[in-house]
Amino acid sequence: MALRIAPESHPEKVISTLNTTHSEFGGHDTLRYGTRSIKTEVLPGHPLENRLNQWEETQWELKLNLARQAYGIHAPVKMMMEKSIVEKRQRLPLFPSANMHLDILMGKDEMIDYEDFLNGSTDPAMSTDSLDLHAAMEHKLNLRV
């Protein structure tokens, strides 16, 4: 139970177990996993890179630990339950969701990120040019079955 504000700069050495071989040809699958570089597999990344990748997770763990110390064990359990409920999208599949509830729970409601003003314009799948609601609902129902 550490009250860590920032992630570690030098994490433990993690050995990559990702199998990047192509199932049919047996070699490295460059189209799916990018070009293979021995340098990136052997040398660790920059310490700042790990901190940026782990920042939100560390802040969430700090918030849970502080809530546990202040209010008891029920507070972080309630927060984790609320987060898991809110993360599930409950809109129709084609309509974009801002997920304001999750932003409030995670404390992002007072920050302005690039997602706030771009609003999915970088993702062509979120384009409203071809809205076929019936096909999207059938696809969603087929995934459940």
Written description of the protein model:
This is Proteasome maturation factor UMP1. Belongs to the POMP/UMP1 family. Keywords: Chaperone. With about 140 residues, the protein is an all-alpha fold. It folds into 2 domains: about 1-90, no CATH class; about 90-145, no CATH class. Helices cover about 50% and strands about 0% of the residues. The protein is extended. The model has no long low-confidence stretch (mean pLDDT about 75).
Task: Outline the secondary-structure elements.
Layout: H1 30-33, H2 38-42, H3 47-71, H4 74-87, H5 100-106, H6 114-118, H7 133-144
Helix pairs in contact: 3-4, 4-5
Quick recap:
This protein is mostly helical and 145 residues long. Helix content is 50%, strand content 0%.
Q: Average pLDDT, to the nearest integer? A: 77
Shape: extended
Total strand segments: 0
Return the string of H and E elements.
HHHHHHH
Which parts are unreliable, with pLDDT below 50 for 5 consecutive residues or more?
none
How many structural domains in the coordinates?
2
Name the beta content range: under 5%
Distance between the termini: 41 Å
Helix content: 40-55%
Q: What structural class do helix, strand and pairing data support?
A: mainly alpha
Radius of gyration: 21 Å
Offer a few descriptive terms.
single chain, 145 residues, mainly alpha, 2 domains, 7 helices, 50% helix, extended
